[in-house]
Amino acid sequence: MGETLLQLKNVYQVYGSKMRRFTALEDINLNLSVGEFVALLGPSGCGKSTLLRIIAGLQEASQGNVLYRSKPLNGINPYASIVFQTFALFPWLNVLENVLLALKVKGIEEPERTRKAEDLLDRVGLDGFESAYPRELSGGMRQKVGFARAMAVEPELLCLDEPFSALDVLSAESLRSELLELWTEGKIPTQSILMVSHNIEEAVFLADRIIVMDKEPGRIIAEHKIDLPHPRQRKSSEFQLHVDEVYAILAGQTQSEQEELGTAPGEAGYTRYLPEIAISDLTGLLEHLDEFEQTKHDIYLLEDELGIDSDHLLSLAEAAELFGFVSIAKGDIEITPLGQTFAEASILARKEIFASRARRLPLMQWLLKMLSNAEKHQLKWNVIQTALSLEFPPDKTDSQIETLINWGRYGELLTYDDGSEIISLETKPDKTPVPQTI
Ligand code: ADP
Ligand code: MG
Known about the structure:
With 438 residues, this protein is an alpha/beta fold. The protein has 3 domains: 4-250, Rossmann fold (3-Layer(aba) Sandwich), CATH 3.40.50.300; 275-349, Arc Repressor Mutant, subunit A (Orthogonal Bundle); 366-438, Arc Repressor Mutant, subunit A. It is 41% helix and 20% strand. The chain has 16 helices and 16 strands. α6 (200-206) packs across α7 (237-251), α9 (279-290) crosses α11 (310-322) and α15 packs across α16 (394-410). Residues 15, 24, 44-50, 218 line the site of adenosine-5'-diphosphate.
């Protein structure tokens, strides 16, 4: 790593009046070095955007020091630029003019200005849309213009505030690999990137270091280094290990894994039943818990609030705890940062979180292993049933298999064909993007 670019020392941000003070950031200490790509993860409201605004000099911290190349930051940081989740473009300017303006502000003259703008638009895949107006573009395309504009400034420090979360899956994926290529191959003069993300896989895919924050008050709770070379293989065991470790930080795991999860069928120990719940109900519970200011909630209140009976509620709470989405103690249920991340994530990111957590369950591991050892990676329902009946009473076996299938389907770990009663291992196309030449 190179020299230190940015330094935050004991930074606080307090909002509100003397009567009602609200600490949005508490004692933040953070260094960014030349050559570093850092991701910032944490639940909504933990102060991520506030932190970026302070770094870009769009607002002044209530307390503490912000140093840029060892000098105190005064007003707008001329070396930093931010890409927001939804980028504000000038609606009366077309795509090309929006980028030209950024270059003009930087003092770049014609004809270099137009050449550069066209090149930038080309790089982000907007070739042919130069004369379109923002209102004619999809969210994904607008975001690409935003990227082109931020890059036109050639910032030393590029701050990205959930830049991919408003995009559809394909646009996000292509823009992500575009950014990675510009960055790793030194095609942009940017020295350091700080990216806020809600997507753990995305963070592990891109960043050298992940900083995890929590809220009330907004603070840094952990840091995780990722020293894998680029391009990273999402399916490799090293990659998955990092993803798991970051999940564990967010879930705040304290119990021993063994005790909490039970053992796989056939092993010494006891095989824990899966709580037999529908994913949509689990999602509903987490979305509900995520709506409250307080992370803690009385469990008994949820019966009325969700309109379900206590048996159902307890199964849901058990499932949520098994996945690390909540912790339960003394009649309180508390949503974890991972639970909040899940509740606030897109459908696809939810599936990924879910899959990664489901893969930890010994019963699911056992099933996936059976499938991967089977011919064509397929097994009939009754084969699984026979194997599991050694473990569970007959009336439990079928409902446990159903739960495994429902969860496995949702997490895209396996598929099931009702007609033939065949369970198959999901063969996902590798999402690692093919490097493209620009
Ligand atoms: P994040 O980006 O992590 O979701 P933000 O930085 O947007 O978090 O906000 C952190 C907290 O500070 C939130 O509770 C938010 O409501 C509060 N907040 C943000 N900006 C202001 C402001 N200008 N005045 C008062 N409270 C604010
Ligand atoms: Mg934000």
